[in-house]
Protein backbone atom coordinates (compact mmCIF):
# COMPACT_ATOMS: atom_id res chain seq x y z
CA UNK A 1 0.00 0.00 0.00
CA UNK A 2 1.45 3.37 -0.99
CA UNK A 3 0.98 6.54 1.00
CA UNK A 4 0.81 9.88 -0.76
CA UNK A 5 3.24 12.56 0.32
CA UNK A 6 1.90 15.78 1.86
CA UNK A 7 1.40 18.50 -0.74
CA UNK A 8 4.32 20.88 -1.11
CA UNK A 9 4.43 24.61 -1.78
CA UNK A 10 7.26 27.05 -2.45
CA UNK A 11 7.05 30.27 -0.43
CA UNK A 12 9.24 33.23 -1.29
CA UNK A 13 9.78 36.21 1.01
CA UNK A 14 11.43 39.24 -0.61
CA UNK A 15 12.60 42.65 0.55
CA UNK A 16 9.22 44.37 0.22
CA UNK A 17 7.68 45.67 3.42
CA UNK A 18 5.24 43.19 4.93
CA UNK A 19 7.47 40.28 5.93
CA UNK A 20 4.77 39.23 8.38
CA UNK A 21 2.64 38.16 5.42
CA UNK A 22 5.18 35.55 4.33
CA UNK A 23 5.74 34.37 7.90
CA UNK A 24 1.99 33.96 8.52
CA UNK A 25 1.53 32.17 5.20
CA UNK A 26 4.31 29.75 6.11
CA UNK A 27 2.82 29.16 9.56
CA UNK A 28 -0.62 28.53 8.10
CA UNK A 29 0.54 26.09 5.43
CA UNK A 30 2.59 24.19 8.02
CA UNK A 31 -0.35 24.15 10.44
CA UNK A 32 -2.44 22.50 7.71
CA UNK A 33 0.17 19.75 7.32
CA UNK A 34 1.73 20.89 4.05
CA UNK A 35 5.44 20.89 3.22
CA UNK A 36 6.88 24.36 2.67
CA UNK A 37 10.02 25.04 0.65
CA UNK A 38 11.04 28.48 1.91
CA UNK A 39 13.27 30.93 0.04
CA UNK A 40 14.15 34.32 1.53
CA UNK A 41 16.06 36.96 -0.42
CA UNK A 42 18.90 38.86 1.23
CA UNK A 43 16.71 41.96 1.31
CA UNK A 44 13.94 39.79 2.73
CA UNK A 45 16.13 38.87 5.69
CA UNK A 46 16.86 42.57 6.21
CA UNK A 47 13.14 43.34 6.33
CA UNK A 48 12.56 40.44 8.75
CA UNK A 49 15.17 42.05 10.99
CA UNK A 50 13.70 45.55 10.72
CA UNK A 51 10.00 44.69 10.95
CA UNK A 52 9.94 41.57 13.14
CA UNK A 53 13.22 41.95 15.09
CA UNK A 54 14.54 38.65 13.74
CA UNK A 55 18.14 37.78 14.64
CA UNK A 56 19.39 37.23 11.10
CA UNK A 57 22.86 36.22 12.27
CA UNK A 58 21.28 32.85 13.19
CA UNK A 59 18.87 32.23 10.34
CA UNK A 60 18.59 28.48 10.83
CA UNK A 61 18.02 28.98 14.54
CA UNK A 62 15.21 31.44 13.91
CA UNK A 63 13.49 29.14 11.43
CA UNK A 64 13.80 26.10 13.69
CA UNK A 65 12.38 27.99 16.67
CA UNK A 66 9.62 29.77 14.76
CA UNK A 67 8.21 26.84 12.81
CA UNK A 68 9.07 23.73 14.83
CA UNK A 69 5.68 23.11 16.46
CA UNK A 70 3.64 22.58 13.30
CA UNK A 71 2.62 19.25 11.75
CA UNK A 72 3.95 20.22 8.31
CA UNK A 73 7.58 20.16 7.22
CA UNK A 74 9.75 23.21 6.53
CA UNK A 75 12.66 23.01 4.11
CA UNK A 76 14.75 26.17 3.88
CA UNK A 77 16.75 26.85 0.72
CA UNK A 78 19.36 29.64 0.65
CA UNK A 79 18.76 32.16 -2.13
CA UNK A 80 22.06 31.29 -3.81
CA UNK A 81 21.43 27.53 -3.92
CA UNK A 82 20.58 27.36 -7.61
CA UNK A 83 20.95 23.56 -7.47
CA UNK A 84 18.16 23.11 -4.89
CA UNK A 85 15.30 20.72 -5.62
CA UNK A 86 12.85 23.52 -6.42
CA UNK A 87 15.13 24.80 -9.21
CA UNK A 88 14.16 21.82 -11.35
CA UNK A 89 10.91 21.29 -13.21
CA UNK A 90 11.14 17.55 -12.49
CA UNK A 91 10.61 18.28 -8.77
CA UNK A 92 6.87 18.35 -8.14
CA UNK A 93 5.18 21.02 -6.02
CA UNK A 94 1.61 22.34 -6.01
CA UNK A 95 2.68 25.89 -6.73
CA UNK A 96 4.61 28.91 -5.50
CA UNK A 97 3.68 32.07 -3.64
CA UNK A 98 5.92 35.14 -3.40
CA UNK A 99 4.55 37.04 -0.40
CA UNK A 100 5.41 39.86 -0.14
CA UNK A 101 6.86 40.44 -3.59
CA UNK A 102 9.16 43.39 -4.21
CA UNK A 103 9.07 45.23 -7.51
CA UNK A 104 12.63 44.08 -8.17
CA UNK A 105 11.70 40.42 -7.85
CA UNK A 106 8.52 40.96 -9.85
CA UNK A 107 10.56 42.60 -12.61
CA UNK A 108 13.06 39.73 -12.67
CA UNK A 109 10.29 37.14 -12.90
CA UNK A 110 8.58 39.08 -15.70
CA UNK A 111 11.88 39.29 -17.60
CA UNK A 112 12.71 35.60 -17.06
CA UNK A 113 15.91 36.51 -15.23
CA UNK A 114 16.67 33.33 -13.28
CA UNK A 115 19.75 34.60 -11.48
CA UNK A 116 18.89 33.28 -8.01
CA UNK A 117 16.78 30.50 -6.52
CA UNK A 118 13.73 32.72 -5.99
CA UNK A 119 13.45 33.81 -9.61
CA UNK A 120 14.49 30.38 -10.92
CA UNK A 121 11.76 28.66 -8.89
CA UNK A 122 9.22 31.16 -10.23
CA UNK A 123 10.48 30.53 -13.76
CA UNK A 124 9.99 26.79 -13.20
CA UNK A 125 6.35 27.42 -12.23
CA UNK A 126 5.82 29.31 -15.48
CA UNK A 127 7.52 26.79 -17.75
CA UNK A 128 5.79 23.82 -16.12
CA UNK A 129 2.38 25.50 -16.08
CA UNK A 130 2.06 25.34 -12.30
CA UNK A 131 0.27 27.95 -10.19
CA UNK A 132 2.32 31.04 -9.35
CA UNK A 133 0.85 33.65 -6.99
CA UNK A 134 2.50 37.01 -6.48
CA UNK A 135 1.55 39.39 -3.67
CA UNK A 136 3.03 42.77 -4.63
CA UNK A 137 3.54 45.25 -1.79
CA UNK A 138 4.37 48.68 -3.09
CA UNK A 139 2.65 52.05 -3.38
CA UNK A 140 2.33 54.11 -5.44
CA UNK A 141 2.84 52.05 -8.60
CA UNK A 142 4.36 53.45 -11.77
CA UNK A 143 3.85 52.24 -15.33
CA UNK A 144 6.75 49.75 -15.31
CA UNK A 145 5.35 48.05 -12.19
CA UNK A 146 1.91 47.84 -13.79
CA UNK A 147 3.25 46.60 -17.12
CA UNK A 148 5.21 43.85 -15.40
CA UNK A 149 2.11 42.74 -13.50
CA UNK A 150 0.06 42.76 -16.70
CA UNK A 151 2.70 40.69 -18.49
CA UNK A 152 2.69 38.09 -15.72
CA UNK A 153 -1.10 38.08 -15.48
CA UNK A 154 -1.30 37.32 -19.19
CA UNK A 155 0.99 34.34 -18.55
CA UNK A 156 -1.46 33.00 -15.98
CA UNK A 157 0.17 34.33 -12.82
CA UNK A 158 -2.32 35.22 -10.10
CA UNK A 159 -1.66 38.75 -8.84
CA UNK A 160 -3.05 39.29 -5.33
CA UNK A 161 -2.02 42.78 -4.17
CA UNK A 162 -1.67 43.34 -0.45
CA UNK A 163 -4.96 45.27 -0.34
CA UNK A 164 -6.93 44.11 2.71
CA UNK A 165 -10.72 44.42 2.86
CA UNK A 166 -12.63 45.91 5.78
CA UNK A 167 -16.15 44.50 5.34
CA UNK A 168 -15.47 41.76 7.92
CA UNK A 169 -14.64 44.28 10.67
CA UNK A 170 -10.92 43.72 11.34
CA UNK A 171 -9.92 44.80 14.83
CA UNK A 172 -6.22 43.97 14.89
CA UNK A 173 -3.22 43.90 12.59
CA UNK A 174 -3.42 40.11 12.77
CA UNK A 175 -6.92 40.25 11.30
CA UNK A 176 -5.62 42.19 8.29
CA UNK A 177 -2.64 39.86 7.81
CA UNK A 178 -4.90 36.80 8.08
CA UNK A 179 -7.25 38.21 5.44
CA UNK A 180 -4.45 38.49 2.89
CA UNK A 181 -3.11 35.02 3.69
CA UNK A 182 -6.65 33.68 3.40
CA UNK A 183 -7.04 35.20 -0.06
CA UNK A 184 -3.86 33.42 -1.14
CA UNK A 185 -5.15 30.11 0.23
CA UNK A 186 -8.44 30.70 -1.59
CA UNK A 187 -6.53 30.85 -4.87
CA UNK A 188 -5.41 27.26 -4.23
CA UNK A 189 -8.84 26.12 -2.97
CA UNK A 190 -7.37 25.43 0.48
CA UNK A 191 -9.99 25.46 3.23
CA UNK A 192 -9.34 27.85 6.10
CA UNK A 193 -11.06 30.03 8.69
CA UNK A 194 -8.75 33.04 8.60
CA UNK A 195 -11.50 35.62 7.99
CA UNK A 196 -15.28 35.92 7.97
CA UNK A 197 -16.69 35.63 4.49
CA UNK A 198 -19.26 38.01 3.05
CA UNK A 199 -22.71 36.42 3.00
CA UNK A 200 -24.83 39.36 1.87
UniProtKB/TrEMBL annotation:
SUPFAM superfamilies: Homo-oligomeric flavin-containing Cys decarboxylases, HFCD (SSF52507)
Domain Flavoprotein: 8-187
Alphabetically ordered keywords of this record: Flavoprotein, FMN, Prenyltransferase, Transferase
EC number: 2.5.1.129
Top-level lineage group: Bacteria
GO molecular function ontology, one term from the record: flavin prenyltransferase activity
Binding positions for FMN per the UniProt entry: 15-17, 41, 102-105, 137
Catalytic activity: dimethylallyl phosphate + FMNH2 = prenylated FMNH2 + phosphate
Chain positions recorded as dimethylallyl phosphate binding sites: 167, 183
Enzyme class name: transferase
Biological role: Flavin prenyltransferase that catalyzes the synthesis of the prenylated FMN cofactor (prenyl-FMN) for 4-hydroxy-3-polyprenylbenzoic acid decarboxylase UbiD. The prenyltransferase is metal-independent and links a dimethylallyl moiety from dimethylallyl monophosphate (DMAP) to the flavin N5 and C6 atoms of FMN.
Assigned protein family: Belongs to the UbiX/PAD1 family.
Listed name of the protein: Flavin prenyltransferase UbiX
Organism per entry: Paenibacillus wynnii
Gene (name only): ubiX
